[in-house]
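Appendix B. Extra example for self-study. Work through it before the problem class; the solution is given directly after the inputs so you can check yourself.
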Amino acid sequence: MTKPGSPQGDAVPGSLIDESHLRSLPVTARGLRTRQSLVRAARRVFERDGFINSRLTDIAREANTSIGTFYTYFDSKDEIFTAVLQVAQDDMLHPGLPHVEEDPENIAAVLEASNRAYFEAYGRNAKLMVLLEQVATINPEFRALRIERSRLFTVRVARWIEAAQEAGMADPALDPVMTARALASMVSRLAYYSFSLGEDWDVDAMVETSTKLWFNALGMTLPQPASA
Amino acid sequence: MTKPGSPQGDAVPGSLIDESHLRSLPVTARGLRTRQSLVRAARRVFERDGFINSRLTDIAREANTSIGTFYTYFDSKDEIFTAVLQVAQDDMLHPGLPHVEEDPENIAAVLEASNRAYFEAYGRNAKLMVLLEQVATINPEFRALRIERSRLFTVRVARWIEAAQEAGMADPALDPVMTARALASMVSRLAYYSFSLGEDWDVDAMVETSTKLWFNALGMTLPQPASA
Amino acid sequence: MTKPGSPQGDAVPGSLIDESHLRSLPVTARGLRTRQSLVRAARRVFERDGFINSRLTDIAREANTSIGTFYTYFDSKDEIFTAVLQVAQDDMLHPGLPHVEEDPENIAAVLEASNRAYFEAYGRNAKLMVLLEQVATINPEFRALRIERSRLFTVRVARWIEAAQEAGMADPALDPVMTARALASMVSRLAYYSFSLGEDWDVDAMVETSTKLWFNALGMTLPQPASA
Amino acid sequence: MTKPGSPQGDAVPGSLIDESHLRSLPVTARGLRTRQSLVRAARRVFERDGFINSRLTDIAREANTSIGTFYTYFDSKDEIFTAVLQVAQDDMLHPGLPHVEEDPENIAAVLEASNRAYFEAYGRNAKLMVLLEQVATINPEFRALRIERSRLFTVRVARWIEAAQEAGMADPALDPVMTARALASMVSRLAYYSFSLGEDWDVDAMVETSTKLWFNALGMTLPQPASA
DNA sequence: TATGAATGAGCCTTCATTCAT
DNA sequence: TATGAATGAAGGCTCATTCAT
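Solution. Structure tokens for the complete assembly:
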């Protein structure tokens, strides 16, 4: 049985960022420092003003450098946005989950931990997620990035569902891919409403509800009652 | 038992559009015609180029008028976008569902019909939905519009879930509001992936899967097997 | 001895308006009525918004007609402004003074009455005066109009001063033209500060002060002491 | 006895310019140079075309820069106009008069010198004065600036008149404030007609006439006749 | 590497004027 | 005469990007 990984689904920065857009890193320590302060400044400005309403001069000022220096490290707004995403993806990619497989009793625990990891990571990067959403509506490359990530994750979840169906643990009538999409969406949107639109739900409650819905939806019986 | 209505959830234009943004309509038939051709041209241009990348001159040209004429009818891009949404909402608002209530055997049918109506309306307005998503990331007013719609729909679904729980037909452990959000998201995102991101699923399959997931998730038993 | 007439000096609409700019008046009663309501509306709009910041559409709306109708009667903004001035000049031109001449005892009375008439007319047309000032700074024709009026009036006052000097009643060392300019300016500016810039002085006080200053400045002795 | 200062009265740029409108000056010498050439170009263009009929592109072209560069230093036409005024005010503000007080014989000399300084400064800035007049008719802030300057100057003159009245040297029946307004107006308008409207009088004659009128009007006796 | 001034294409917006009805 | 929709030249302003120092 495969593990679903974190249901980053909809909109999670992953390892797919097209790094060809990024220049080689500066060689001197000073250069590295300047570059880093630009990336951090960019994140703050983007999160504050949105991608569209932000200006490169704002980013340069926020980083206490000049606009000329900006162009020493980045070729465009898109490029520094890519760099910002790259920093965030390290955080979003850690499902932090050990490979707990083949053990039916642990499925619920794995899923719950996975969901929890996702919600927590989302919480840390909520503003950036909204940002990526915005940029994806404008720029085809970032849109493709988002879609590809989503697709990859869905495939993983779909395989996991198939395995569960084969093991007789999930409703075999469900289409695995479509179901994977649906369930992944459920979790990512819950996170979106809570963190980005201000519902501000309790993370424990979200974890519990989403895990239960996932189980129910798949026609799984929670292992605990079974063993009780 | 209340019916959920169509799960227009996430992003459906409803009656909440702030019409105060719209000027009074022109008095002559000619004016009405010109205005209409502008709105239609705007929809085409927006759908083709996106809201941000479209220019008012493009809209005017597409409508075979001058830019001056544009300003005769609208004050801004936002305003004509409001007008475009208003045209679409008539289509999105009709769930077209008769009030089928109190009859347990019909719940599945109602839900299925509701979902189908939603998917079909979404299919007709898919590009516009993407557009609204984009604009909502930029403009606080349209964002508020989307959120409010979503909230209203969630409330309706939540009430329906509560009623089902009270009738002993749904898992009483689920938080009604959070669950409503999750399930509505599931359906709207399925539509989004299929129509806007090119998954291009069969509508029947989407209706079937989403209805089943919804039922399962709530811990309902489908009426058919019950009677079997 | 010539009488000075009203010291309309600086900025008083006179009979110099170039009427060649004005079309022939409409023939029908209805046409006359429409034209008149346009002129009145224009005056209100000009006085409210200034010449530059007013739009022809505003004038048409204020007159309850259409912009098309405006062009039935006037060719341009300048033209209707000319018409507005023409209406006002009838009021500004009435010095309301009988020819009181040759009688030394009456000089003060004549001057006082003349000044009073000027201040009162200015008060009735203060907003229009400001308007003419604005337009004169923009449009050479209206500037020329203002200058010519001013010049004519100065000439009259200068002749009057010369006559007084010849009669031994005024300081012969004064340059008549320059003095005429100076004295006329004094009165018109007093009116400007009071009515247009909000000093809001008492008209009696203005009349008294300006008459006394005029007399003193010319080295005239007020008739009363003469009889003493 | 207070000295009146130069009768800059009506329309003289003073220290009241709202400098908050001005951005911080550029840091580099090159920037300073560019800014200065823009201000000079603006003055030329304004004086040539008037404030209203001038375009920012004209100013940029006259300064041999791009329109973008204009916006590097100024936010608007109003702002560069403020900068133009600021340059001029240094010239207009120096009455260049020593404090000659308490000495009755010198009153005429002080007044004459003051008037002369005013006429000469006006002559150097005549076009700018006309410009300020135009802008004041359009823009409330500049209007307020002009009014405030005028008020301040009038207050100074009024105090001087009061002192003269108390010393028994001026007609005690005159209202000091109104008289101050009237006399200041006399001088400033004389300058206006001569320099801006093309009368082109001899400065000596203007100084002599205005000083004499001022003395006569106040009921003062010129010291010279006393010695005759 | 760092700086910040210079650039100008590109888009928005206004409103006097024309014209078909 | 009256109407009001249609027009587009004209000018304002932004900001990513270039470049000289």
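Self-check: Confidence is low (pLDDT under 50) at residues 5-14, 96-100, 223-228 of chain B. If your reasoning did not lead you there, revisit section 3.
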